[in-house]
Design a protein that fits this description.
The chain is of the alpha/beta class and 238 residues long. The chain is built from seven helices and 14 strands. Helix content is 32%, strand content 25%. Strands 7, 8, 9, 10, 11, 12, 13 and 14 form an eight-stranded parallel β-sheet that branches. A six-stranded mixed β-sheet has the order 1-4-5-6-3-2.
Length: 238
């Protein structure tokens, strides 16, 4: 088993790897690695290397070409649930392969997170990427309202789905994925407890979102992203 560690780009200087005190403690005290043991280093953007621990530093041995990433990028836009629910969404959906998270302050959102909370989510994404042997650490954008979020997205490069309930015209997400252009990223939008407002639904439809359902049952905001991402992964056979 090769343990994984995400680094900042400036930590790698040619074949030398400068470890932070926290990283050195993790490798030597938590993982119990000894000088000469190897581990995998990630930059969080897709590049990875095999490294060897030395007495005080580490050395890059060679680059690795492995990839456990999905063939299509999944961007997850979620109206923030109350409590610590979004942290669980980040943890689980990072493991499932999500490329980026867009936390939303929808009309029915009750939580307004602090900058400290956003940094915590980013730390969780990094830890989950290491644990699930990914090559990419998902980007977590600052929480914004729906209008702002939509204005910042390049929707022409995405197939966008708005997950809804009690809408008979909505097609099942699994069916929609099979018909979507494979060259485009996927954007999954999950609403808050109580669902999207009519105005939010209309706004998204006007920008080209397709209404989809995750099934007959009503899911919590914490559960729905896991179901949606798992469904996409299954349809991609990955």
């Amino acid at each position: 088993m090769s343990y994984r560690l995400v680094i900042e780009s400036q930590q790698k200087q040619e074949n030398n790897l400068h470890l932070s005190k926290e990283q050195e403690h993790y490798l030597r005290r938590v993982l119990r690695l000894q000088p000469g043991d190897t581990f995998i280093v990630l930059d969080g953007a897709g590049s990875c290397w095999l490294a060897q621990l030395n007495q005080k530093t580490a050395t890059i041995l060679n680059s690795l070409s492995e990839s456990n990433e999905l063939s299509r990028a999944i961007h997850l836009m979620v109206a923030l649930p109350k409590g610590g629910g979004f942290e669980e969404i980040v943890r689980s959906c990072t493991e499932l392969g999500v490329s980026s998270f867009l936390p939303l302050l929808s009309e029915r959102t009750l939580l307004v997170p602090s900058p400290h909370k956003v940094e915590r989510w980013r730390k969780v994404a990094q830890e989950s990427s290491e644990q699930s042997e990914r090559q990419i650490v998902p980007q977590i954008l600052p929480p914004v309202d729906l209008t702002t979020a939509l204005s910042r997205l390049n929707l022409s490069q995405m197939t966008a789905y708005l997950c809804v309930t009690r809408k008979p015209e909505a097609q099942h997400l699994a069916q929609s994925i099979l018909l979507s252009p494979r060259e485009k990223d996927l954007l999954l939008a999950i609403g808050p407890e109580g669902g999207w407002t009519d105005q939010e639904v209309t706004q998204c439809i006007s920008l080209g979102f397709e209404l989809v359902t995750l099934g007959r049952r009503i899911l919590r905001t914490i559960t729905a992203p896991l179901v949606a991402v798992s469904m996409v992964s299954a349809m991609l056979k990955e």
